[in-house]
Design a protein that fits this description.
The chain is of the alpha+beta class. The protein is built from 7 helices and 22 strands. The longest helix has 23 residues.
């Protein structure tokens, strides 16, 4: 019996106990074969794949925004007499006539209101980004610095008067392009009838089964890292943008610092302030990144499930004040990147009639002795409510740099 030892690539033993190693060319083939035996699981794609087809080259969807209640002063109020309040560009849409607003500065280096600077005002007219107000409405009128906070508190209406129009805003249109994933395999009739060490039946059919799984894996990878690009007729293909392309609001550059729960907690709190979706998020990262989170919890605070034959040393759910979040490892996110994703708002949609499908050419129909099998599919990504998701990147992604202990 031949015993094969693990060796670095291109380093081979010439002899082993009980036999002789194969020639170098054969070993190269075996090495490539072993490398190809990857587990083609696509857990993220399984969660976001949709049968909801689209039928346009430019796929559009609406992105709505909840109306805000807060702005800032674009210019300072130099005294307690001025009645024109200019808010940040475009933010006058958040207010209405007869609105009650408060203006205040924050304590140094914080977002905490300074109560000594608080003034309440009443809005009588809106023109562009300028609010005409009654100053010191129940409070003392005073000067305010630029960038002071302006909050909408509600409305106050005098008797026997007309109601005023409520503020409302519309969303924006997002769009993405379809991308075609495809591959074909060709095999001579003779090769198809020659069993191999890997496949005892038809090698073409076995290889094609593996290829279909590989294409799904590549689609999942593009879900994260794809770049949106418009195609040019028959000369250049179109591509869809992935999560990285559309997720722009809550993106945190850790600047090489270690990943910790405080960073996650702070972003989750921001998402909670802006949306109602924080509790729907899943923590997604590479296996090492998820293990970093496991190791970040001191052992003395873990609750182990142990018996004489097994011990559980993993965390499947993390409880924050904003909600409870599961962890999902994936092979398609590099170390040093972590996502907080809402799978309910991520969709991979197939083009009409072009979901995964196979085609082929039998050699007997074309007077040749080789067959062709192909797989292809046209898909795009739709990302809704990206402001309710988050991404952390450029943190220390080396597992060994984090404290690890054994119970």
């Amino acid at each position: 019996m031949v015993t094969i030892f693990n060796q670095p690539a291109n380093t081979y033993l010439s002899n082993t106990p009980g036999g002789t190693i194969a020639a170098a060319a054969s070993k190269d083939e075996v090495v490539q074969w072993v490398k190809s035996l990857e587990p083609w699981k696509t857990p993220i794609l399984d969660k976001v794949m949709s049968n909801d087809e689209f039928d346009q080259e430019v796929h559009q969807w609406g992105k709505s925004f909840r109306i805000g209640f807060e702005s800032t002063l674009a210019t300072a109020l130099t005294d307690g007499v001025e009645t024109t309040v200019e808010v940040a560009s475009g933010d006058a849409l958040l207010f209405q006539e007869k609105a009650v607003i408060e203006v205040y500065e924050t304590l140094p280096n914080t977002e905490i209101p300074d109560p000594s600077t608080r003034e309440v005002m009443w809005v009588t007219d809106i023109n562009g980004d300028e609010l005409t107000v009654v100053r010191g409405f129940g409070t003392t009128a005073m000067a305010h610095d630029a960038d002071s906070v302006v909050n909408f508190l509600g409305t106050a209406e005098e008797l026997n008067s007309e109601h005023t129009e409520a503020p409302r805003v519309r969303g924006i249109r997002q769009f993405n392009y379809p991308q075609r994933f495809q591959a074909k395999l060709t095999a001579d009739k003779r090769n198809q009838n020659m069993p191999t060490y890997e496949h005892e039946s038809n090698p073409l059919l076995a290889d094609f089964s593996e290829e279909m799984l590989k294409q799904k894996r590549l689609l999942e990878r593009s879900v994260f890292r794809g770049v949106r690009k418009q195609g040019v007729g028959n000369s250049l293909p179109s591509m869809f943008g992935g999560i990285d392309y559309f997720l722009q609001t809550n993106v945190v550059n850790m600047s090489g610092d270690p990943l910790d729960f405080n960073a996650l907690d702070n972003v989750l709190a921001d998402i909670w302030e802006a949306t109602d979706s924080a509790e729907k998020l899943t923590i997604v990262g590479s296996m090492d990144t998820i293990r970093i989170l496991d190791q970040s919890i001191p052992d003395e605070r873990r609750e182990y499930t142990a018996s004489d034959t097994e011990v559980r040393r993993m965390v499947t759910k993390y409880h924050f004040r904003t909600g409870t979040f599961e962890a999902q490892p994936t092979r398609n996110v590099p170390n040093g990147v972590l996502y907080l994703l809402d799978f309910n708002n991520i969709k991979v949609r197939p083009f009409k009639g072009l979901n995964w499908h196979t085609s082929g050419k039998d050699g007997a129909d074309h007077a040749v002795d080789h067959d062709v099998k192909a797989i292809s599919g046209d898909f795009t990504l739709e990302l809704l409510h990206e402001e309710a998701m988050a991404k952390f990147y450029n943190f220390d992604g080396v597992l060994e740099n984090y404290t690890t202990t054994t119970p």
